[in-house]
């Protein structure tokens, strides 16, 4: 089965298939891990309800109706980038990071068609860059890196 059939159409950022455009796909650090799925599907924490703590009464008092609201959350995703040559890898890596940082006026809609889910986020931080091949050697290149996105109004 071709790589396009396996990795194509899995993650769309602002409508762009990141595999087809940049050679980037979601990856795990260890076989069997599900950290990307955990990050995507983790429910946001809720905002704290205001309590009244009266010294002369037991416990706390809350409003009769608790209006539940989500806190903003960070979504930490690990990507891998594969390219046939060192030059292509360097070009695609730089272009992908610039694409994420710029977004559409800074905003990114990351769509996961298999989950029927779109996250409205912005690029917050990048970390954990890990070369999987030797960039100073010619030929195929691969790496793994983590990007932290901020979701101000969580979907979950």
Tag the structure with descriptive keywords.
156 residues, alpha+beta, seven-stranded antiparallel sheet, 4 helices, 7 strands, 22% helix, elongated
Could you give a quick summary of the protein structure above?
This protein is an alpha+beta fold and 156 residues long.
Rg over CA atoms? 20 Å
Strand content: 25-35%
The secondary-structure element order is: HEEHEHEHEEE
Report the principal-axis shape: elongated
In the sheet with the most strands, the strands line up as: 2-1-5-6-7-4-3
Helical region count? Answer: 4
The share of residues in helices is: 10-25%
Largest sheet: 7 strands, antiparallel
Structural class: alpha+beta
Query: Would you count the extended β strands for me?
Result: 7
Amino-to-carboxy terminus distance: 34 Å
Low-confidence stretches: none
Mean pLDDT: 91
Any chance you could write out the topology, listing elements then pairs?
Blueprint: H1 3-7, E1 12-13, E2 16-17, H2 18-22, E3 24-26, H3 35-41, E4 73-83, H4 86-102, E5 108-112, E6 117-131, E7 141-151
Antiparallel strand pairs: 1-2, 1-5, 3-4, 4-7, 5-6, 6-7
3D structure, described in words:
This protein is of the alpha+beta class and 156 residues long. It is 22% helix and 31% strand. The chain contains four helices and seven strands. The chain has helices at residues 3-7, 18-22, 35-41, 86-102; strands at 12-13, 16-17, 24-26, 73-83, 108-112, 117-131, 141-151. The chain has a seven-stranded antiparallel beta sheet with strand order 2-1-5-6-7-4-3. A hairpin with a 4-residue loop joins β5 and β6 (117-131). It is elongated and about 75 Å long. The two termini are 34 Å apart.
């Amino acid at each position: 089965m071709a790589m396009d059939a396996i990795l194509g159409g899995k993650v769309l950022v602002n409508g762009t298939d990141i595999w087809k455009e940049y050679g980037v796909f979601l990856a795990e650090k260890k076989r069997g891990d599900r950290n990307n799925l955990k990050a995507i599907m983790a429910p946001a924490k809720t905002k704290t309800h205001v309590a009244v703590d009266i010294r002369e009464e037991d416990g706390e008092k809350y409003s009769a109706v608790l209006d539940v609201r989500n806190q903003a959350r960070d979504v930490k995703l690990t990507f891998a980038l594969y390219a046939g040559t060192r030059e292509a890898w360097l070009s695609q890596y730089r272009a992908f990071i610039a694409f994420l940082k710029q977004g559409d006026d800074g905003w990114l809609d990351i769509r996961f068609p298999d989950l029927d889910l779109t996250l409205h986020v912005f690029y917050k931080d990048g970390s954990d860059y890990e070369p999987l091949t030797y960039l100073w050697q010619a030929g195929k290149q691969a790496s793994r890196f983590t990007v932290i996105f901020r979701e101000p109004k969580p979907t979950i």
